[in-house]
Design brief:
single chain; 210 residues; alpha/beta; DNA Binding (I), subunit A; six-stranded mixed sheet; elongated
């Protein structure tokens, strides 16, 4: 049991009742929805989907714990272990997903993968800042296309100048993401591979919530 992967830091994709993805939530939030019978677990089985309420998912968890424990992350309760579901469906929510990716600091860092767009090195968020490619003093706006991650050293070197004026080059031109950059990062992890069948970046993006 000690070899089981703990699951409280995992995330769960949430679908509306029409199986359209609407957001990503924490494990704690997902189990809260399941316990209150507001959602069901959606699991792909032999090319089709099966739905489980909290109690039946607990029974499935017992089976998975015995025969395929490595396939899931796990949450330990007082009386039993629960497999962390990858996808849940809201039973009474039929609103459509958000179309816009939120323009905020977190999504810009995620879009640029915490990599300075001038020197190309990766840094912790605490060691990064946001740089206006065309400085605000020269009329540069705060937009997806004019803001990039920059390490403190490169930011100081560039100062209130354009890259050309400062003699630096962008490693890639910034663009507005078609879907949540944080979601894109998680899709690169094998354990979230089952999300892909519910996602279509050409039409919508999901909202991330705690």
């Amino acid at each position: 049991m000690d070899a089981l992967t703990p699951g409280m830091d995992s995330h769960v994709l949430v679908l509306n009742k029409h199986y359209m993805a609407v957001r990503v939530v924490s494990v704690r939030r997902a189990f809260s929805l399941l316990c209150r019978d507001l959602a069901e677990v959606v699991a792909a089985e032999d090319g089709s989907y099966a739905g489980y309420n909290f109690e039946t998912w607990r029974q499935v968890s017992e089976y998975k714990l015995k025969f395929a424990p490595a396939e899931y992350d796990w949450v330990r309760t007082v009386r039993f272990l629960l497999a962390v579901p990858r996808v849940i469906r809201l039973l009474f929510y039929d609103r459509l997903p958000r179309q816009e990716v939120k323009f905020n600091r977190r999504n810009i860092f995620a879009r640029d993968s915490n990599r300075c767009q001038y020197c190309g090195k990766k840094f912790p968020t605490s060691e990064l800042s946001l740089d206006h490619i065309v400085p605000r003093s020269q009329g540069g706006a705060s937009t997806w296309e004019n803001l990039v991650c920059s390490c403190l050293k490169c930011n100081i070197r560039k100062g209130g100048r354009t890259p050309v004026e400062a003699g630096v080059k962008l490693i890639r031109l910034p663009v507005k993401p078609k879907r949540s950059p944080l979601l894109t990062l998680r899709l690169g992890q094998e354990k979230y591979a089952s999300w892909k069948q519910f996602l279509d970046s050409a039409y919508w993006s999901v909202e991330l919530r705690d």
